[in-house]
Write a structure and sequence with these properties.
single chain; alpha+beta; 31 helices; 7 domains; five-stranded parallel beta sheet
Length: about 1150
């Protein structure tokens, strides 16, 4: 051992510790009178093993050689190994050796004796702990030195965070924590869980609204912070902007972890340096790269606790389930004891999320705590708070106030709602109102309402506060007060993010004084700041629940109609935007000025908080109002005048990427009238932002430049908004007439895209590539969701299960992998093929997976267990494609032996062979009714076959190279084929006639897939891209025709040898006339970028005559601009 290096010594200790732990378990099952000592030794050995394992990883890591203090710990490591060796030897000598002895021990006929007395165990643990502390301290010293040595400064601006999400943020400065003497047993239980190295990594505390979960979370976070154990906290809050967004949870936690644990700096900085946009990636990538990997790179003997409160207030049910699934992986962090404490209501998405990770968390429901314990805790709180109030109102209340009976009654009214007790105390303590005794008496009058359900308890919580607004008033006055309450408080409880009194008044078009007058009576239920610029917040979400509960519509005078007031908010947002939005609202003046160069102060000065709110949330309020928009209503009128102004504001606010989602939300809210002018306008607006979103986001004023100019001449948006174009553009000729079939290009793979497939719901696209990865894409936005890594060679094929929860991938590494599509985690690997897996397909019921391989076989697998069911043999060469019939009874396979085989899936028997192709079969696909099979071949044709008889129906010809992919549309009327000739062709399946050709890829088309609604076709290519096509329009991009003389003249001028009119096309910078330049992707004047050129309009040659700028393009297209050069 002395001769070993520190890393090797640590490995030896890990192996020996694992052996001793196993021996302890053997003794524990056979020895009854020493189980406590056995368990003590086992737990300490497990802890030592974890420490040594973490040390070994660090010492063998990239910076291991620099950990000088740790490398010198050979004596401590040698002593530890020697002590472990002695323990192991004594344990082994007492174990039965022969078969007969083992049987006697097993039958209880011979006792097994534990070889250590309790005092021996104490000594063993003390000696081991001393050495463990020595090399743990050395590692921490080395880590500190390492951090100082690598410029420990980290650019935290690269880690965006949700403001006010931490438990100790200023906004929560006055929020309550558990009162002394309350929740003692629960807090002790949580403390024990955090310190137990063998406990589950996640603790889920759940309870209904108002039961005190957030108060417990704040107390837990504060307690662990005092002990130096708190790593980070995130307190979700619906309606608080970023605090409700799943996308900022892990960057926020990572940012806090860096502050608390500087040893994480190198790993987190590496993650940011490797991928500066890591904080914008999918949740799984964020969690792995910003949390798991950094924590696994450090060593720490004490626990690191992360507190996440109110997970039910996170937007997006699927995101909530993903967060739970990811947090459940905390156990994989071995070098530190990571503990995650979560609170939430037991809402369905959360229950489902925890059901999926059963056995990986420790759970407790607050309603499981005995009612008497809860009542006593509430009594303790009430007694203390009311005593404080009594002291503050000395002389104004009786000496025996409030009295034990009243406290007991209040506690009984409250159980299990701590929010009741907190609200009552704020109400009784409300300064400037009647004295506390009278207010307490008012509360006690509601005791009858608390005898039934929890909802009735909410009546008793909030009605004492609200009834005072109308008490003693005439019917007319009462009606006016209730209307005023609903008009002000209704919006407050429905806001997507809180606003200040000033901004709220601006949004509602009322005077701030009128808002304050009403709110002055509501300090018990609303957190109302003393200054007008700070936001008004609800003390608790249960106040909102109470006001909008549909069951209380006829029972609660203060009831708020959610739909009605959401519509009111939508209307007020639109009115405010209509008054304030305008072109170049921030006075940028320079058409190409980047958004990144516009400071936040400029934006805030020109877009007030109320206007910013309106721009971001009016669509949300419209959606929640259930209002059906239609031609010429207030929404249509606003967008006709201000669509581009709204897009500009979204760009300035960094929210333009949400614009597509906003437009789609509006489309869903439109009356389903296919002739509606407004629907056509919205559809065009969606294409407008899809096509130009990149430059609109980077340079806001190009909305009025590049986006307008290069939209098709028949674009509804262009027709209505053309007058808003930038002034230096007089006209543009040579722009295509219609939006092309090509909708979007998805880039990210670093090698050929071999396969594409839509999820059953059409929301996700999966692509498999020769770069060994699978990528998942959001079809709503075209954004990359996650990358699935694990294969060691080409990914040839991908397939979704019918329920969309599982993705299968087949690879040249000879394996099939199954993935959880929600989290991206690898579920299992199916092994058995002896060559590339070229094709995979799920049966319609999802119970069977078929795989075709270059080993000439098809294998069928049980998807539940991953077991191999049967092998189908018969092909004499590679199996290139497999497909199940819609009824699941038949499997088709295509092979490079030039045949298609049909198989009975129940028995695995070969039914028939389809012959006719003269080269490889690359692809097969069943029609939706199962009656027709299509096959694509290297003979450049597609063949259609009758599946009942096996007869050849027709041959589709037109491609000039291998047909690599075929797919039927969902209605079976159209067949798409992708070819090595770089095109996709669409065919009428009834007649076999060619409908259209989709061009745009620059290399082989390897895969095609229709979306479930048939409106979109995806194609994957060897050019490393996926393209999305609109199947409805099918129009080519326009090419100017009929001007051959003029085009020749332009070309001649552009390339004239005197060089005056243009430059060689190989150069990026081309002067045009005396003032304009074409600089790659921009038309510029001097140092000023004027007009961004989309890829299809980049010039290969240029010319100018008077004020006409002419661009010639590689496609043969020519574009003319009338430019004001002044």
């Amino acid at each position: 051992m002395e001769g070993l290096g520190a890393a090797a010594s640590a490995i030896a200790i890990v192996e020996l510790a694992a052996k001793i732990a196993s021996l302890c378990l053997e003794y524990s099952s056979a020895v009854k009178n020493a189980r406590s000592d056995i368990e003590r030794v086992r737990k300490h050995i497990e802890s030592l093993k974890t420490t040594a394992d973490g040390a070994q990883k660090l010492l063998q890591g990239p910076h291991g050689a620099r950990l000088e203090t740790s490398q010198k710990l050979r004596k401590a490591l040698a002593d530890t190994y020697s002590q472990l060796g002695d323990v192991a030897a004594k344990l082994e000598t007492k174990l039965p050796t022969g078969r007969r002895e083992k049987v006697l021990v097993y039958m209880g006929l011979r006792a097994l004796k534990w070889p250590f007395e309790s005092k021996d165990v104490d000594k063993i643990i003390a000696n081991l702990q001393r050495n463990q502390d020595s090399f743990a301290a050395a590692l921490q010293i080395d880590q500190a030195i390492e951090i100082l040595d690598i410029h420990s400064k980290i650019d935290l601006t690269m880690l965006p965070s949700a403001s006010r999400a931490a438990f100790d943020s200023h906004v929560k400065e006055h929020n309550a924590r558990c009162h002394r003497g309350t929740r003692t047993k629960l807090l002790h239980q949580i403390r024990e869980w955090a310190n137990d190295a063998q406990a589950e990594s996640v603790f889920w505390l759940n309870g209904m609204a108002g039961t005190g979960k957030s108060t417990i979370s704040r107390t837990v976070a504060a307690s662990f912070a005092e002990d130096g154990l708190l790593g980070a906290s995130f307190f979700f809050k619906r309606g608080e902007g970023d605090r409700g967004k799943a996308g900022l949870v892990f960057p926020t936690i990572a940012r806090q972890l860096v502050h608390k644990i500087p040893a994480l700096v190198p790993s987190i900085r590496k993650a940011i340096d490797t991928d500066p946009d890591v904080s914008k990636k999918i949740l799984r990538d964020q969690f792995e790269k910003l949390i798991l990997q950094p924590l696994n790179s450090i060593y720490r003997t004490t626990a690191i606790v992360i507190v996440i409160d109110a997970l039910d207030e996170c937007d997006g049910d699927e995101d909530v389930k993903t967060i739970i699934a990811l947090l459940a992986q905390a156990k994989v962090v071995h070098s530190v004891c990571l503990r995650i404490f979560i609170t939430s209501r037991p809402e369905l998405p959360i229950r489902l999320g925890f059901k999926d990770v059963q056995g990986k968390y420790q759970g407790l429901a607050l309603h499981q705590i005995p009612e008497k314990v809860v009542e006593q805790d509430i009594s303790t709180f009430l007694a203390s708070e009311l005593a404080r109030i009594k002291d503050e109102y000395s002389g104004q209340v009786p000496l025996d106030w409030p009295g034990k009976d009243n406290i007991r009654t209040l506690a009984q009214m409250a159980v299990p709602l701590f929010i009741f007790a907190a609200t009552v105390c704020r109400f009784v303590d409300d300064k400037g109102r009647s004295n506390p005794a009278k207010r307490l008496k008012k509360v006690l009058e509601y005791r009858k309402a608390t005898r039934n359900s929890t909802l009735d308890k909410l009546d008793a919580t909030y009605l004492p506060v609200l009834d005072q607004l109308t008490s003693g008033r005439t019917d007319q006055d009462r009606a006016e007060v209730l209307a005023e309450f609903r008009n002000v408080v209704g919006p407050i409880v429905l806001l997507a993010q809180p606003l200040s009194v000033r901004s709220l008044a601006r949004l509602l078009d009322v005077e701030p004084e009128d808002v304050n007058a009403l709110l002055n009576s509501l300090h018990s239920v609303l957190d109302i700041p003393s200054v007008d610029d700070a936001p008004v917040r609800l003390f608790h979400l249960s106040f909102r629940d109470f006001l909008v509960d549909p069951a209380k519509r006829t029972k609660n005078d203060f009831w708020i109609d959610e739909a009605k007031y959401h519509k009111t908010l939508a209307e007020r947002c639109i009115q405010l935007m209509g008054q304030c939005l305008k072109q170049d609202i921030c006075g940028l003046k320079v058409p190409g000025k980047p958004r990144s160069e516009v400071n936040q102060q400029t934006i805030n000065a020109n877009l007030s908080p109320a206007v910013q709110y309106a721009c971001q949330y009016w669509v949300h309020h419209l959606k929640e109002s259930k209002h059906n928009i239609e031609d010429d209503d207030f929404v249509h009128t606003f967008l006709t005048s201000h669509l581009l102004h709204w897009f500009e504001a979204l760009s300035l606010l960094g929210r333009l990427s949400d614009g597509v989602l906003f437009i789609r939300t509006l489309l869903h809210a439109a009356q389903p009238d296919i002739t509606s002018n407004f629907i056509e306008f919205l559809k065009d607006a969606e294409k407008f932002i899809h096509s130009h979103g990149s430059i609109m986001e980077r340079a806001p004023l190009q909305i009025y430049g590049s986006a307008l100019v290069f939209s098709p001449t028949l674009s509804k948006v262009k027709e209505q908004q053309w007058k808003k174009k930038l002034l230096f553009i007089k006209s543009a000729v040579g722009i295509k007439d219609r939006w092309g079939t090509h909708q979007q290009t998805l880039k990210g793979h670093s090698d050929n895209v071999m396969a594409v497939v839509f999820s059953p719901d059409g929301k996700t696209l999966a692509s498999g590539s020769a770069d060994k990865t699978i990528r998942l894409w959001d079809m709503a936005t075209g954004t990359h969701q996650q990358t699935l890594e694990g294969h060691s060679d080409y990914v040839w094929a991908v397939a979704f299960s019918p329920d969309g929860k599982t993705l299968a991938s087949g690879s040249a590494d000879k394996t099939i992998r199954l993935w959880d599509t929600a989290t991206g985690t690898h579920q299992q690997t199916l092994e058995g093929h002896s060559n590339d897996v070229r094709a995979v397909a799920f049966s319609p019921d999802g119970k069977t997976l078929a795989s075709g391989s270059a080993d000439k076989t098809i294998r069928l697998w049980d998807t539940a267990t991953g077991t191999h069911q049967q092998t189908l043999e018969g092909h004499s060469d590679y199996v290139m494609a497999v497909a199940f019939s819609p009824d699941g009874k038949t499997l088709a396979s295509g092979s490079s032996d030039m045949t298609i085989r049909l198989w009975d899936t129940a028995t695995g028997t070969h039914q028939q062979t389809l012959e006719g192709h003269s080269s490889y079969i690359w692809a097969v696909a069943f029609s939706p009714d199962g009656k027709t099979l299509a096959s694509g071949s290297a003979d450049m044709t597609i063949r259609l076959w009758d599946t009942a008889t096996g007869t050849h129906q027709q041959t589709l010809e037109g491609h000039s190279d291998d047909v690599r992919a075929v797919a039927f549309s969902p209605d079976g009327k159209t067949l798409a084929s992708g070819s090595a000739d770089k095109t996709i062709r669409l065919w009428d399946t009834a007649t076999g006639t060619h409908q259209q050709t989709l061009e745009g890829h620059s290399d082989y088309v390897m895969a095609v897939a229709f979306s479930p609604d048939g409106k979109t076709l995806a194609s994957g290519s060897a050019d490393m891209t996926i393209r999305l096509w609109d199947t409805a329009t099918g129009t080519h991009q326009q090419t100017l025709e009929g001007h051959s003389d003029y085009v020749r003249a332009v070309a001649a001028v552009a390339f004239s040898p005197d060089g005056n009119s243009g430059l060689d096309a190989s150069r990026n910078l081309r002067p045009v006339g005396n003032v304009l330049f074409v600089d790659g992707e921009w038309i510029t004047r001097g140092e000023m970028n004027l007009l961004w050129l989309p890829p299809d309009y980049r010039a290969t040659c240029t010319s100018v005559y008077d004020h006409t700028l002419v661009l010639g393009h590689s496609s043969g297209q020519v574009t003319f601009f009338q430019i004001d050069s002044t």
